[in-house]
Design brief:
By secondary structure, the chain is mostly helical. The protein has three domains: 133 residues, no CATH class; 177 residues, no CATH class; 34 residues, no CATH class. It is 66% helix and 1% strand. The chain is built from 15 helices and two strands. Strands 1-2 form a two-stranded antiparallel sheet. The longest helix is centred in the middle third of the chain and has 46 residues.
């Protein structure tokens, strides 16, 4: 039994040290499938989604989904700590409990309790001194575990600020897209809001910013995939809906809309699609993506495509007259939509539509109200449209901060 627990302790210690190294320190995607972190998310995310799905209120569901990211981070640290304590306890027990204990444990169960006590007090550097190692191997293990505990605390302290810094960088561009593409964002709204004098330059600059945003996502969310579970501040925003809206816009600029932003649309599309593909690999979504790729694409039906073209033409946007426009657009959609749909389904997020909702079916948002007030006749518009209550409604918060 001692030899068995000694080997098990060595296995657990190697597993948790390797897993924490790959999760926190390694700046690239781990290739091993059998990792403690992966098992942790597999064992917790599905039960969490089933539990949240029982909630009928959409706002309550989104609130509970938003708890998972921060809670999973804390529970991941707890899992690593418990595994480390267990691993060292098994190592001590495998050495036949080489300690002088004032309680004088006689049975194997009492000796195992002593090993867990020593392991826990050493890892968290309590240093009580009531149980003392009696041989060199035990002393070496005690010092090693104390160093492991200090390193574990240091990694935790350094890991959390890095995560929240990357989250803040991600959400900045997502929030900025609100004024440029609506909330939730749509490709049609993005093109319509950039149809003005100098709009092509502004659109080109926006696509450049999203190309860099996508490159940042490749560096952060591939190394720290736990960030994918972190949701945006507001229910009508998400990183995947924003990225999908940008890819939709790039697809339209490449195949359907005539303009000078074609080259930049191609560059942004390539990097944005790269993000979805690599994140799908991190979460092992290949089978689901293949099923979606082989099935029919229902996200943009014929009626919505015709409606989108009518909206763009009425705004004065030049469209390509090629009869194969829809076929080329669908071919381009197949390059990214299966990945976007798969990740959205996994994370329980909604993908955006292609066209903005009809004006008479939604309340005017804060950006529309500001645009009306900037015109000479806008003074007649009700000021309540830009009141704090209207802003809170736009942000998805009924009661503000309190």
């Amino acid at each position: 039994m001692h030899i068995l627990l000694l080997l098990l302790g060595l296995f657990l210690l190697t597993a948790v040290l390797l897993d924490s190294f790959q999760t926190i320190i390694l700046p690239r995607r781990p290739v091993t499938r059998f990792r403690l972190t992966r098992f942790f998310f597999v064992a917790t995310w599905d039960p969490w989604t089933h539990l949240v799905h029982l909630m009928r209120d959409r706002r309550a569901r989104e609130q509970l989904y938003s708890y998972y990211g921060p809670l999973s981070l804390l529970m991941l640290f707890v899992m690593w700590a418990i595994t480390l304590v267990t691993a060292y306890a098994f190592l001590y027990f495998g050495l036949h409990t080489p300690f002088t204990d004032p309680l004088h444990p006689a049975t194997l169960i009492e000796q195992l309790r002593t090993c867990f006590y020593v392991s826990g007090s050493t890892l968290f550097t309590l240093g009580l001194g009531d149980v003392v190692p009696v041989n060199h191997a035990a002393r070496f293990l005690v010092v090693t575990e104390a160093g492991t505990g200090l390193g574990f605390v240091a990694l935790v302290i350094g890991y959390v600020p890095v995560l929240y810094s990357a989250f803040s960088v991600r959400e900045t561009e997502v929030a900025l897209l609100d004024a440029r593409a609506g909330s939730p964002p749509t490709a049609g709204e993005l093109l319509l809001r950039h149809h003005f004098d100098g709009g092509n330059l502004a659109l080109n600059k926006l696509l450049v910013e999203w190309e860099r945003w996508s490159a940042t996502m490749l560096e952060t969310h591939i190394s720290y995939p736990i960030l994918c579970y972190y949701r945006s501040q507001h229910d009508n925003q998400s990183w995947i809906s924003a990225l999908t809206a940008i890819l939709d816009t790039c697809a339209l600029l490449i195949t359907s809309v005539e303009g000078p932003a074609l080259r930049q649309a191609q560059l942004t599309f390539a990097v944005g699609r790269h993000v979805l593909v690599d994140i799908g690999h991190v979460f092992h979504r290949e089978k689901e993506e293949q099923k979606l790729r082989e099935g029919p694409f229902t996200r943009l039906n014929d009626d919505e495509f015709l409606h989108l073209c009518d909206l763009l033409r009425q705004a004065g946007i030049s469209l390509c007259s090629d009869i194969n426009v829809r076929a080329r657009l669908d071919a381009l959609r197949r390059l990214y939509e299966p990945h976007a749909c798969s990740m959205a389904h996994y994370l329980r997020l909604e993908l955006p539509h292609w066209t903005p909702p009809p004006v008479n079916t939604v309340k005017p948002d804060i950006w529309t109200s500001i645009g009306r007030l900037s015109s000479p006749g806008g003074a007649a518009d009700p000021l309540s449209a830009v009141s704090p209550q209207a802003t809170a409604s736009h942000l998805g918060d009924e009661g503000g901060f309190l």
